[in-house]
Amino acid sequence: MLKENQVNSIDEYLNYLDKYKSYKEEGQLFFRGQLSKFPNMIPSVARDNKVFTNEYQYYQKYENFHKSVVQNLARMQHDGNPTRFLDFTTDPLVALFFATQSSLREDASVYLFIRQAFDANSKEVRLSAFIASQKDRNLKQLVKTFNEEEKESISVAEAKMILSRGIFVKPNTIKDPDNLRMLRQEGTFAIPGNLIEKEYITEISPFENDLSFEEIVIPFEYQEEIRKGLVRRGYTREKLLGEADRTIKYDCLSESDISQINPRYIQKAYCQYSVTVESKEFMTVGEMEQLGYRISKDSKADSIWIWFRRPDNDSGNNILIQHWYKESVNKYDWSGSQYKDLTLDETKCDSYITYEYFKANYYRINYKHLPNNPKAKLVNLEVVYKNSKLLLKTNLLKGTKLSLSYRVNDNVEKSVKLEVSEPVTSIDVQSYKEVRKLEVEVIMIVPILQNQSIIKNYGIDFEKIKGDFIQRNENGPSVGYKKFVFNCGL
Q1: CATH 2.60.40.10 residue ranges in the chain?
Q2: Res 259 pLDDT > 70
Q3: By Cβ atoms counted within 10 A, which residue in 199, 381, 404, 437 is the most buried?
Q4: DSSP E strands, 176-267
């Protein structure tokens, strides 16, 4: 699965999410933050077989008879008791908060899901939650009991379809004034599907990370700075968890884990020193600054360049580039910030994780695609050659970006970039004495490069449109593509 993007700051993160604005407005955008190293998302009740076997007893222990099963499970989840619920949020900064709360020197990820959500009172959510309250996991008996207690008439076949897939709960539909933590976190839940064998529910199917539409990686190195930024924005443990705020502390670094590679001096009008630094353990930006200052002072140079990178990464694939210098030699418009008795200018690199992952997994990566919207609009695109002109006819929206290329008589290919403005667009073809064969290709560029109004109407994966013009495959992003060949000399 592709680690699609790396962000090093809150602003980068929010700017990157702008393209999903329309999905948020439609209530289809969900976030979950956790450490990147976990391969899937498993609800707490399924992390231990003994706990899962006794799920019914846990539910009974904490059940409030004045509340629904959904309300009870939501409260149990936020009180730290084992349930089949998984925490999600509609606030991306809440997900970022939870992703960066570990005391381990590990990368974190925010997983973004675009999904249809169901009201907490829908039969889908009630049935998916109902399992927790039942000791008998026979599907037929479960459906019978559910129909009796909930006054429903779900068939076994329908129940099997519902219970085999993950269900997202629509935000703000679990009404429980006693559950303040859920309200603070703008929280909601997903209920994973179940493995059903011989008409028995035997286990919970985890949400695999690659079921998310996108994984956004938050490198360990920048998590400390991000936490400070979240506090300034009011995202604190006290607000979100009702706990006293605390500083996250990491295990101390060992000097033996830090290597300095290719140190060298260059004598110019001043003395310059440069070195690459690798550490077996990830370092925070603050730790890199402390180490960089110490290296700079020990070098006794006037200008010091330090490249920090992770072990075994390609040369140039850096985490952070530091330039330390004495102001007395700054005759070159260097710009930095005062750090003790030196000046520091930093370049924060933004692709060292995704670059390495993509390089290692290129031939195994499959692109993720959203299912077609049931109300997807049928789009048409045709090209006609008439009177030395290409006439492009389409019902695509005004502003849709296209690229049209054509080749006459197997000569050099010509390309034209255009935006749809009218139902019929005319393109002059360079005049040739004789046109025997004309090949035309029309491409609608990938969604992310279209205007926001187009993305809103077509979808971030072109899932809101359909037709033979739309190409979606596992080897690349969705595009629009169609080829036309005109044999004019026949």
Answers
A1: 377-487
A2: yes
A3: 381
A4: 187-191, 194-197, 200-204, 207-208, 214-218, 258-267
